[in-house]
Amino acid sequence: QVQLVESGGGLVQAGGSLRLSCVASGRTFSAYAMGWFRQAPGKERVVVATISRGGGSAYYADSVKGRFAISRDNAKNTVYLQMNSLKPEDTAVYYCAAETVAGAYGYWGLGTQVTVSS
Fold it and tell me: What pLDDT was estimated at residue 102?
């Protein structure tokens, strides 16, 4: 089992920045690729960014490329999402998740709310 706890969400004006953190406990954090997902009101949950187990490879959704950066610190069992140049359409609940099977995320946090005002 892996427990994931997100933090760092909040209310920010358009153009501002936030840094989300996700701390993992339980099994070896470095054994898992990690991802950040988001779900806006009335919409399905979608992937935002993913990072490989060692941190050397990352993927970004087109909507956040050049604005968001995912990183991880395996010594601290933490994955981060730096969000810059935020837009109102980035408003959502953000979740971190651990990839348990290739392409499938089996462990999820409870999420943190990000609200971007115009």
Answer: 82
Decide if 50 contacts 56 (C-beta within 8 A). no
Q: Collect all residues with Cβ–Cβ distance below 8 Å to 78 and sequence separation of at least 6.
A: 21, 22, 23, 24, 72
| Rounded Cα gap, residues 55 and 47, in angstroms | 17
Average pLDDT for residues 50-65, to the nearest whole number?
Answer: 97
| Rounded mean pLDDT, 106-114 | 97
The tokens 């187990």 sit on which residue? 53
**Neighbour tally for 96: CB within 10 Å:** 29
Please give the distance of CA 78 from its chain centroid, rounded to a whole number: 11
Is it the case that residue 17 has pLDDT exceeding 90?
A: yes
Reading the block at residue 36, the tokens are 């950040």
